[in-house]
Each structure stands twice: as structure tokens, then as C-alpha cells.
């Protein structure tokens, strides 16, 4: 098995990714935390209109959004220090899932058609670096997951955003069935510390003594 260079923590909004990445970095200080893709491409994200939500769900094309996400991901990968294991917030499969769900909602097409459109655009972009992928879910049940996520969100959801979150959950569950993620960690009713132990156990198996 090739040495792990990137470890991604994926999941829908409000699933606890940021908190778990912070706890992971505290428990394994040898890891390099790179954070979100947009942090590494300010020249790409900085030109978006002030009302980014309207651009995201209405005026952007699927090609524009997909290229923005995946090219930002590539720039983030370049920030990895040689010899380090980089932890990223939302890796390549999660960004693809985001693009697919957005396309399905914005263009009012099926998930299969949206996936085909995104994958066609993806072919024009350089292949992403390999990564060890973890998926953090509030629940595998869509209604339970959306209810908790919406409760945790300080911004009220409109009907379009709820439809997007529901579609994203469906896309993620399809990825799980396809074996996209090395490990799926479900919150359920378990305490945060127990979730962190699951993540640490998966990370330690993946990276061994490297961090």
C-alpha cells in the first residue's frame, strides 16, 4: 500500500467535520491540517458575487461550479508539505457529491443525469491526488440527518436549500453503496468522544506510525 498523503473528512453540513478535524489535529499533532478547498483559492472564490447563494443555485453553470470546486481542491493539494500527511475538510468525492446535488436541484434533473454531467466536466480536469476518505454522517436516515442538521444551522433553511441537503444525502448514500469511502462514521446518539475514537482508530490504521 502506498504511503497516505491526504486524509479527508467528508460529510454534509453540520455533521461535525470541523470539530472532529480539530480534535484529530490535537490528538495527532504530526498531521498537517489544510482545511477547506476555498481557503487555498481566494483568487477564484473572491470574484463571486456578494450573494453567493444565488450564484451557486441559480446563475452558475454546472461546469463553472464543478471547475471551481475541483480546481480549488487541486490548489489545496499543492499546499501539502513534502513527507507530511495532510488532513482536508471535504475531499474529492465530497466535492463531486456537492456538484452533483447542486446540479440536480438547480437544473431539475435526476441524480443520474447530474452525475453524468459532473463526471463529463471532471474529465477535463487533472486527476485528483489519492486520499484516504472518511465519511461522517449524522445519520444514515435522511429525515433524521436533515432534522439535526437544520437544528444546528444558525441560518434558516429555505425550501431550495432543504431540497439540496436531501439530494446531497441521497448522493452520499449512493457513494457509500459504491464503496467510495474507506470508513463511514455515523453519529446516531453517540457522544462526541466516542465518534472521535472511531475516527482515530481509522486514521491510525491508515497512517500507522507516520503521524
What's the layout of helices and strands?
Layout: E1 6-10, H1 17-27, E2 32-35, H2 42-45, H3 52-59, H4 62-77, E3 86-89, H5 92-106, H6 111-122, E4 132-137, H7 142-152, H8 159-177, E5 183-186, H9 192-207
Helix pairs in contact: 1-9, 4-5, 4-6, 5-6, 5-8, 7-8
Structure, described:
This protein is of the alpha/beta class and 211 residues long. The chain has a single domain (6-207), classed as P-loop containing nucleotide triphosphate hydrolases (Rossmann fold, 3-Layer(aba) Sandwich). It is 53% helix and 11% strand. It is built from nine helices and five strands; from the N terminus they run E-H-E-H-H-H-E-H-H-E-H-H-E-H. A five-stranded parallel sheet has the order 2-3-1-4-5, sandwiched between helices. Helix 1 (17-27) packs across helix 9 (192-207) and helix 5 (92-106) crosses helix 8 (159-177). It is globular, with a radius of gyration of 17 Å. The model has no long low-confidence stretch (mean pLDDT 93).
Ends distance: 17 Å
Helical stretch count?
9
Strand content: 5-15%
Coarse morphology: globular
- Give the structural class: alpha/beta
Q: What is the count of distinct domains?
A: 1
The CATH homologous superfamily is called P-loop containing nucleotide triphosphate hydrolases
CATH topology: Rossmann fold
Mean pLDDT over the residues: 93
Unreliable segments of 5+ consecutive residues: none
Largest sheet: 5 strands, parallel
User: Any idea what the CATH architecture is?
Assistant: 3-Layer(aba) Sandwich
Helix content percent band: 40-55%
Series of secondary-structure elements, N-terminal to C-terminal: EHEHHHEHHEHHEH
Give the tally of β-strands: 5
Quaternary structure: single chain
Amino acid at each position: 500500500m502506498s504511503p497516505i498523503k491526504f486524509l479527508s473528512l467528508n460529510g454534509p453540513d453540520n455533521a461535525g467535520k470541523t470539530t472532529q478535524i480539530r480534535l484529530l489535529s490535537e490528538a495527532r499533532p504530526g498531521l498537517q491540517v489544510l482545511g477547506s478547498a476555498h481557503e487555498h483559492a481566494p483568487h477564484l472564490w473572491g470574484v463571486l458575487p456578494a450573494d453567493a447563494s444565488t450564484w451557486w443555485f441559480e446563475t452558475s453553470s454546472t461546469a463553472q461550479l464543478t471547475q471551481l470546486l475541483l480546481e480549488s481542491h487541486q490548489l489545496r493539494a499543492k499546499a501539502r508539505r513534502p513527507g507530511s500527511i495532510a488532513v482536508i475538510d471535504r475531499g474529492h468525492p465530497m466535492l463531486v457529491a456537492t456538484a452533483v446535488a447542486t446540479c440536480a436541484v438547480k437544473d431539475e434533473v435526476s441524480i443520474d443525469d447530474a452525475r453524468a454531467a459532473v463526471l463529463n466536466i471532471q474529465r477535463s480536469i487533472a486527476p485528483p491526488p489519492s486520499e484516504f476518505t472518511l465519511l461522517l454522517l449524522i445519520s444514515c436516515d435522511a429525515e433524521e440527518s436533515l432534522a439535526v442538521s437544520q437544528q444546528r444551522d444558525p441560518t434558516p433553511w429555505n425550501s431550495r436549500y432543504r431540497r439540496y441537503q436531501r439530494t446531497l444525502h441521497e448522493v452520499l448514500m449512493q457513494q457509500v453503496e459504491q464503496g467510495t469511502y474507506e470508513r463511514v462514521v455515523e453519529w446516531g446518539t453517540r457522544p462526541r468522544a466516542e465518534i472521535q475514537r472511531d475516527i482515530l482508530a481509522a486514521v491510525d490504521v491508515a497512517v500507522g506510525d507516520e503521524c
